[in-house]
Design goal:
Nucleoside Triphosphate Pyrophosphohydrolase, 2 domains, 199 residues, 8-stranded mixed sheet, alpha+beta, globular, 3 helices, 3-stranded antiparallel sheet
Length: 199
């Protein structure tokens, strides 16, 4: 069966820093024919990058913590433990953003970089697509408060052992999906990654 959809109408309902669009559409059905007309709001933002900063010599990860508006409905947990991330600006590649954001948000210089995966974060209502990297760094000088003042960033940076970071996932201390995916990936692929970086 050939899958298809048709956009019947589109309007911008909010044109802010992020954009909200409303679509009227229909799509083909698995058992044949077409759906009825449906209406869907779409949170539109550019593609983004996240990077798990890993020091293979010390077996440490760089974690950041910052206030997140998306978590304010749970006020006691509005500061989330995450990994470095940022939006791809016009003319930038995903890899360039990984290098830039690692310096801006964590004060880290990436020595080697590897793509983990690309994926949509929440495709039920958002267009955001992430390129997730793992970056080799030296964690010996990691720490402190970082971020750009003009972006109102107030980011606490720390290096923790891989075992501690993994336990934070197990214990539910890390509640953001992207670092959970990244840390679980490292748990499954650490031996292969170390062999690649050693060569």
């Amino acid at each position: 069966m050939k899958k298809n959809f048709e956009v019947l109408g589109r309007e911008i309902v909010y044109p802010g820093f992020f954009r909200m669009e409303k679509y009227r559409l229909k799509h083909t059905l698995y058992d044949g024919g077409w759906s009825e007309e449906i209406s869907r709001e779409l949170f539109v933002r550019g593609n983004c990058v996240a990077v798990l900063l890993y020091d293979p010599t010390a077996d440490k990860l760089v974690l950041i913590e910052q206030f997140r508006a998306g978590a304010i409905l749970n006020p006691d947990r509005a500061w989330l433990v995450e990994i470095v991330a940022g939006a791809i600006e016009a003319g930038e590649t995903a890899e360039e953003v990984a290098y830039r954001e690692s310096i801006e948000e964590a004060g880290c210089t990436i020595e080697q970089i590897k793509v983990i995966n690309e994926f949509y974060t929440t495709p039920g209502g958002s267009s955001e697509r992430i390129t997730l990297f793992c970056g080799k760094i030296d964690s010996s000088q990691v720490g402190g408060i970082h971020g750009l003042d003009h972006e109102h960033e107030d980011i606490l940076v720390r290096a923790v052992s891989f075992d501690e970071a993994y336990q934070m996932v197990v214990n539910g201390e890390i509640e953001s999906a992207i670092p959970i995916i990244a840390i679980q990936w490292l748990a499954l692929n650490k031996r292969q990654l170390l062999a690649e970086w050693a060569s």
